[in-house]
UniProtKB/TrEMBL annotation:
One of its GO terms (biological process) is medium-chain fatty acid catabolic process. Belongs to the AB hydrolase superfamily. AB hydrolase 4 family. Residues 102-251 form the AB hydrolase-1 domain. GO terms for molecular function: acetylesterase activity; monoacylglycerol lipase activity. This is Alpha/Beta hydrolase protein. Keywords: Hydrolase. It holds the Pfam family Abhydrolase_1. It comes from Absidia repens. InterPro entries: AB_hydrolase_1, AB_hydrolase_4_sf, AB_hydrolase_fold, ABHD4. It comes from the Eukaryota.
Length: 386
């Protein structure tokens, strides 16, 4: 049951330059394949984790953390008075005063944080020899045991926190320090939405999206369609959201339109977002919130190299949500899919399974750091006509 990456992209991917040799340009797709040898290695799922449900279930219990990944926290106050935290990696090779080493900026999934095993897995590889890059994890509001200072917790529509945090990170570093972002699940949706909004104005030189739901309304409808998915997936995610809400109950009670009893009685993601998220953000319906936060509406406007990775058997970010047409018309985007892998899982090996995806993500990040930043002048950006 081997499953290699299948690549999907524009007929004429954007031309990129290797920063070590800016005399020769490469098709983005060809450049990535040439610089990421493990992309061609077949993925063979753990035999007893033979479908997306089992892979995803194992992922929820897999909590391996790397002893090589350590953090130092910084609290940031946003323009609206809200608070987020960012966790910087620290170590002998990249102390807190390091301002020139390339930085991988990571956005976690729903209610996650820098403790997640899928974050440790990729950070462990980029922090060590021979690269010794740095990482920084941005926590959504209320996540990562960060106190909120306004009655608002994590949601999929807010890209302003990422926008402001990137400015802060850029100001802390030496001019020209390479910045690449990596988003997982809801974090990848936020990242891609932000990239589509910013277009060429982002300080990022490239980005990676993993397990992106893209069309949040389609994915929530998919979860609602059967009792199993509604209970196992939507119910579990609702409980995670309610735990965040409970942790910040005193502040959330201050919102005039939020009824804590209604929030705590929610049994699905939709009912939680109906009771809480749409009211906090001022949406008339929960479907309008889902439509507005979906990155599928923005991905065709991305103007930096973007690698998207999805497993087609993902039971949370369902394949029906993948915006194939919008990816096809954008030469900056490359989609890599596997037949198997579940949601943020991709476990292999019979004994002590580990994530096959970790090495691939590290290689992709290394390759993207080497790309010469694109010109910010729209007239100089090569955009092939479909």
């Amino acid at each position: 049951m081997n499953s290699s990456f299948k690549l999907f992209h524009h007929d004429q991917p954007v031309e990129v330059y290797d920063s070590n040799n800016d005399k020769i340009s490469f098709s983005f797709a060809n450049y990535l394949v040439a610089n990421c040898p493990s992309l061609s290695t077949p993925y063979s799922p753990t035999p007893y984790l033979f479908n997306g449900h089992l892979q995803t279930a194992y992922s929820s219990y897999y909590n391996k953390q790397s002893p090589h990944v350590n953090f130092e926290r910084e609290l940031l106050t946003m323009t609206d008075g809200g608070q987020v935290s960012i966790d910087w990696t620290v170590g002998e090779k990249h102390p807190g005063d390091d301002t020139q080493t390339p930085v991988l900026i990571i956005l976690h999934g729903l209610t996650g944080g820098s403790h997640e095993s899928y974050i440790h897995g990729v950070l462990e590889k980029i922090l060590q020899s021979p690269h010794h890059y740095r990482g920084v994890v941005l926590h959504g509001r209320g996540c990562g045991h960060t106190e909120i200072t306004t009655p608002q917790t994590i949601n999929g529509a807010n890209t302003d926190d990422l926008r402001e945090t990137l400015v802060h990170i850029q100001n802390k570093l030496a001019p020209g320090t390479p910045l690449v972002a990596l988003g997982f699940s809801l974090g990848s949706n936020t990242l891609v939405k932000y990239l589509g909004e910013e277009k060429e104005k982002t300080p990022l030189q490239a980005a990676i999206s993993v397990g992106n739901p893209y069309d949040v309304l389609a994915c929530v409808n998919y979860l609602d369609a059967t009792l199993f998915r509604r209970t196992i997936y939507s119910g579990t995610m609702a409980n995670s959201l309610k735990r965040v809400f409970t942790r910040h109950m005193d502040m959330m009670k201050k919102h005039p339109h939020v009824d804590p009893d209604q929030v705590m009685s929610a049994l699905t993601v939709r009912s939680y977002d109906y009771a809480c998220t749409r009211k906090v953000l001022g949406y008339s319906t929960v479907n309008n919130y889902y439509r507005d936060c979906s990155s599928n509406r923005y991905i065709e406007h991305v103007r930096i190299p973007l690698v998207c990775i999805n497993a087609l058997d993902d039971p949370v970010a369902c394949a029906d949500g993948i915006p194939w047409d919008e990816i096809k018309v954008n030469p900056y985007v490359l989609l890599a899919t596997t037949t198997h892998g579940g949601h943020l899982a991709w476990f292999e090996s019979l004994v002590a399974p580990s994530r096959w995806i970790d090495q691939r993500l590290a290689e992709i990040a290394f390759a993207l750091f080497k790309i010469k930043p694109m010109s910010k002048d729209l007239k100089q950006i090569h955009l092939p006509v479909d």
